[in-house]
């Protein structure tokens, strides 16, 4: 950096192997006298003639960046080159065909419109414009900074690419461009600094989400928190969706004047519910209604929706059909326990609707999508969850078509969610209390499971019930009878405290989700003394009697 212009004195240094003269104003004719030169750095000079010296036999690395070169020439005589930095004003790249050892080529800051003759080179690092790169399959580092790149198309097949520099292109403006490099699984380092795309809302999280293997973005390490936030923003897991739904309704509810519900129990005295879940159109709606009709002394159903009624559906019977505005206003006034958006409509279960059913001395029976189940599991309700899952895709699709209610997209969406349900069942033992595959005979199986829940089998079969086996001693039989009687009283006796025992979760439930219906014994597992306490006149289990606040008390001084 001494603004040298005459270096002819070096002509006598014939054994020089390394010449570094950046930031001067030199010409390079003296290099012709250096046959052993290996490294030449002549960057930031004002050289306009390109490789106009006798080729040193072993010249490997040449840096000509930031000179005044505009035109390439044939470099066959420089076949030993391995690294060549040509960040200049070239518009066309050619003449490198014979540089068969060239692995690093930098062509940033150029105005290149055409590249030819690179196909046969062993390049692993390159910096240039995108066109013509498709065949450079061994590229690992690509520096395309300060060009005029508008699209990343053309990079799709560079599967070994680990680093991509697109700084200061001023043209890349769409996050969607990242889809062209989405499949480059080795890409770890991407720089889009000073591109308009950085102005897009949530740019960083969006890019991190699209390119989840990135470790460095715009020269900054991608943190674990950013990775988690990006997934939570663009593809939140069910747990996160449910937690958000739950928080929303809890906060809105807490903002309202608090209502002491007459019958709904509290956090330590959960209210019984039966929830049928499964992908859309698996028949859970019809099954729910059939159950509520047959077991009308036990169950009632009610949910809200913003979708219009199907043919034959009645307001207040099939759903409470409400407008989107009314639904939103109900959310904001803390009415809901849980809600979901599904197929462009909103669905939700309100506290008042459950309270209405509870006041009748009945248990709620609802059907819902998996998101609803996750959300409900965050509340203090403790339903029995029954999963209805189609096992044969063709049959299921045929069934959806036969309904005539759904568009192709809706059917595809429903089919694609079968796996979601199956996975949840596989990966979370005990998440569902029963699993009923397919809908043929589903009602029979469901009815059987519900009867077992309600102990109706015993009522019908009298002495022959399977729990009171001939082997039981008279004391055991008396105990079983007493417990069963207590449960029956609890169900029909409008005694909400007892609801806490009915359907109460216990460890035995965990195993049943793994197999097709097997909930026999759910009631028999209840401890007699628990039940006795629940219905005993002197045990004060009425709602509100020992209600604990949902949130812990705020310590003094805060
Ligand atoms: N409160 C709720 N929370 C979560 N999901 C719900 C709720 N109410 C209804 N759903 C579910 O929303 C989906 C769409 O309901 P809709 O009544 O439009 O369904 P459908 O097309 O008749 O299908 P299905 O026969 O499975 O109910 C169904 O899977 C239904 O179970």
Per-chain topology:
Blueprint: E1 18-20, E2 39-41, E3 61-63, E4 83-85, E5 92-93, E6 104-106, E7 114-115, E8 125-127, E9 141-143, E10 163-165, E11 189-191, H1 203-210, E12 216-217, E13 220-221, H2 224-234, H3 238-254, E14 273-277, H4 284-294, E15 299-300, E16 304-305, E17 320-321, H5 324-332, E18 336-342, E19 345-350, H6 351-359, E20 363-368, H7 370-376, E21 384-389, H8 393-403, H9 408-416, H10 418-427, E22 434-437, H11 442-454, H12 456-461, H13 474-492, H14 496-499, H15 507-512, H16 528-535
Parallel strand pairs: 1-2, 2-3, 3-4, 4-6, 5-7, 6-8, 8-9, 9-10, 10-11, 11-12, 14-20, 14-21, 15-20, 16-17, 21-22
Antiparallel strand pairs: 12-13, 16-19, 18-19
Helix pairs in contact: 1-2, 3-7, 13-16
Bound molecules: adenosine-5'-triphosphate.
Explained architecture:
The chain is 28% helix and 13% strand. By secondary structure, the protein is α/β, with parallel strands linked by helices. It has a domain at 240-535: 3-Layer(aba) Sandwich (Rossmann fold), CATH 3.40.50. The strands form four sheets. It has an eleven-stranded mixed β-sheet, with no helix packed on it. A hairpin with a 2-residue loop joins strand 18 (336-342) and strand 19. Helix 13 (474-492) packs parallel to helix 16. Residues 280-285, 303, 307, 338, 340, 342, 347-349, 367-369, 372, 405 line the site of adenosine-5'-triphosphate.
Uncertain regions spanning at least 5 consecutive residues: 462-468, 493-558
Helix amount, in percent? 25-40%
User: Helical region count?
Assistant: 16
Which molecules are bound besides the chains? Answer: adenosine-5'-triphosphate
CATH architecture of the domain at 240-535: 3-Layer(aba) Sandwich
Structural class comes to alpha/beta
Instruction: Enter the CATH topology name of the domain at 240-535.
Output: Rossmann fold
Total DSSP E strands: 22
- Average pLDDT for all residues: 79
Largest β-sheet summary = 11 strands, mixed
CATH-wise, what's the superfamily of the domain at 240-535? Answer: P-loop containing nucleotide triphosphate hydrolases
Distance between the termini: 64 Å
The CATH first-level class of the domain at 240-535 comes to Alpha Beta
Q: What portion of residues belong to β-strands?
A: 5-15%
Dominant shape: elongated
Widest β-sheet, arrangement of strands: 1-2-3-4-6-8-9-10-11-12-13
Rounded to the nearest angstrom, the radius of gyration is 37 Å
């Amino acid at each position: 950096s001494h603004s040298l212009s005459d270096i002819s004195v070096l002509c006598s240094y014939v054994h020089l192997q390394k010449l570094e003269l950046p930031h001067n104003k030199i010409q390079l004719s003296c290099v012709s006298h250096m046959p052993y030169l290996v490294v030449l750095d002549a960057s930031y000079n004002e050289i306009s003639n390109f490789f106009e010296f006798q080729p040193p036999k072993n010249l490997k690395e040449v840096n000509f960046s930031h000179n005044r070169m505009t035109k390439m020439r044939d470099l066959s005589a420089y076949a030993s080159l391995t690294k060549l930095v040509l960040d200049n004003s070239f518009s066309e790249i050619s003449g490198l065909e014979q540089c068969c050892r060239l692995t690093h080529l930098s062509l940033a800051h150029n105005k290149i419109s055409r590249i030819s003759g690179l196909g046969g080179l062993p390049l692993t690092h390159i910096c240039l414009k995108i066109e013509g790169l498709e065949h450079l399959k061994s590229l690992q580092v690509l520096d395309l900074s300060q060009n005029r790149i508008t699209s990343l198309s053309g990079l799709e097949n560079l599967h070994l690419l680990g680093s991509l520099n697109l700084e200061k292109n001023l043209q890349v403006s769409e996050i969607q461009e990242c889809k062209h490099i989405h499949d480059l699984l080795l890409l770890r380092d991407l720089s889009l600094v000073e591109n308009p795309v950085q102005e897009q809302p949530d740019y960083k999280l969006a890019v991190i989400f699209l390119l989840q293997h990135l470790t460095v973005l715009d020269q900054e390490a991608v943190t674990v928190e950013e990775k988690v936030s990006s997934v939570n923003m663009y593809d939140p897991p069910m747990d996160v969706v449910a937690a958000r739904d739950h928080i929303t309704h809890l906060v809105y509810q807490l903002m309202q004047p608090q209502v002491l519900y007459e019958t709904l129990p509290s956090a330590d005295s959960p209210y019984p519910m039966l929830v049928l879940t499964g992908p859309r159109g698996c028949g859970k709606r019809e099954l729910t209604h059939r159950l509520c009709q047959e077991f009308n002394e036990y169950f009632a159903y009610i949910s809200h929706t913003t979708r219009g009624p199907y043919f034959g559906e009645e307001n207040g019977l099939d759903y409470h059909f409400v407008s989107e505005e009314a639904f939103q206003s109900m959310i904001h006034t803390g009415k809901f326990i849980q809600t979901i958006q599904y197929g462009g409509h909103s669905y939700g279960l309100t506290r008042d609707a459950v309270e209405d059913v509870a006041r009748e001395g009945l248990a709620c029976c609802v059907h819902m999508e998996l998101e609803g189940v996750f959300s409900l599991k965050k509340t203090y309700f403790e339903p029995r969850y029954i999963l209805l899952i189609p096992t044969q895709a063709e049959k299921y699709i045929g069934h959806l078509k036969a309904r005539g209610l759904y568009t192709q997209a809706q059917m595809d969406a429903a089919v694609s969610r079968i796996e979601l349900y199956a996975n949840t069942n596989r990966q979370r033992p005990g998440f569902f209390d029963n699993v009923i595959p397919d809908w043929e005979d589903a009602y029979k199986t469901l009815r059987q499971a519900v009867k077992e829940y309600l102990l109706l089998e015993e009522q019908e079969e009298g002495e022959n019930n399977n729990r009171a086996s001939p082997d039981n001693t008279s004391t055991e039989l008396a105990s079983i009878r007493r417990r069963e009687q207590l449960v029956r009283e609890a169900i029909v006796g409008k005694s909400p405290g007892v609801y806490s025992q009915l359907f109460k979760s216990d460890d035995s439930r965990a195993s049943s989700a793994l197999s097709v219906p097997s909930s026999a014994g759910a009631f028999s597992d209840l401890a007699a003394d628990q039940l006795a306490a629940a219905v005993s006149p002197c045990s004060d289990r009425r709602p509100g009697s020992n209600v604990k606040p949902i949130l812990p008390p705020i310590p003094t001084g805060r």
